[in-house]
Design brief:
There is one protein chain. With 224 residues, the protein is an alpha/beta fold. The chain has 2 domains: 1-33, no CATH class; 35-223, Rossmann fold, CATH 3.40.50. It contains 8 helices and 6 strands; from the N terminus they run ααβααβααβαββαβ. It has a 4-stranded parallel sheet with strand order 1-6-5-2. Strands 3-4 form a two-stranded antiparallel ribbon. α8 links the parallel β5 and β6. It is globular. The termini are far apart. 39% of the residues are buried.
């Protein structure tokens, strides 16, 4: 009974999306319904008709990350999976999602020294018991055999980005992050769950670049 209980903690008995019997957090049928981008701007990760080095979205902007990439649109099964990642059982879903997206990631983005994640607020961390972006980053770290550094932290309380428009999102997180360990001359992969306006990851990369980081690449599960 004890062994079975431990296995139940590790292995789900049903799909988090459709509740069908499954040994995986997301069953094969639901996984097949997840859409991914065929072509994106290699600078900002915005979906495009053909692969581009930059696009109309990112050219006018001051970006502190070097390259960004997102697996697919924040909709359907992928959206449900990310919400489950945040609120249900993070680690099981994080491992499966990273296994799913890794084969699609431009390998140039993964050619880094270390991996880190966007820090969550203290309130959300206490409520959930974990930071979903950290779980994803650690799954990338394990798959790529590259070290995970917990190097970013929030220096002030910010409003929930979901409640703000595009302009206010940038102002809301401006100078909201700092670095707590030595990162000079390193190349870093920053991992987050969803790329919306890019304001949060951009400010994280701004903090990293201000401490002498050479390259900051961004990988997210979805683009909203």
């Amino acid at each position: 009974m004890i062994i079975k209980g431990l296995l139940d903690l590790i292995l789900p008995s049903s799909c988090f999306i459709c509740n069908s019997s499954s040994k995986k957090p997301i069953c094969d049928i639901c996984t097949e319904k997840i859409n991914y981008f065929d072509a994106v701007c290699s600078r900002c990760g915005k979906p495009t008709v053909v692969l581009r080095d930059s696009c109309s979205f990112c050219r006018p902007k001051k970006l502190y990350f070097d390259k960004a990439w997102a697996y697919g649109p924040y909709e359907g099964v992928l959206k449900e999976a990310i919400l489950s990642l945040k609120y249900d059982n993070g680690i099981k879903i994080a491992l499966q999602l990273v296994d799913m997206v890794l084969p699609k990631v431009n390998k140039e983005l993964l050619d880094v020294d270390i991996i880190t994640s966007v820090p969550t607020s203290f309130t959300k961390y206490v409520k959930r018991g974990y930071n979903q972006s950290e779980l994803l980053a650690k799954a990338f770290s394990a798959n790529l055999a590259k070290p995970y550094y917990d190097c970013l932290y929030r220096v002030r309380i910010v409003k929930d980005q979901m409640s703000l428009d595009k302009k206010d999102r940038g102002l809301n997180v401006k100078s909201a992050f700092d670095v707590k360990r030595e990162v000079k001359d390193l190349s870093i992969l920053l991992v987050d769950d969803v790329f919306t306006t890019g304001a949060t990851v951009n400010e994280c990369c701004n903090a990293l670049k201000s401490k002498g980081v050479k390259i900051t690449n961004v990988v997210t599960l979805a683009k909203a």
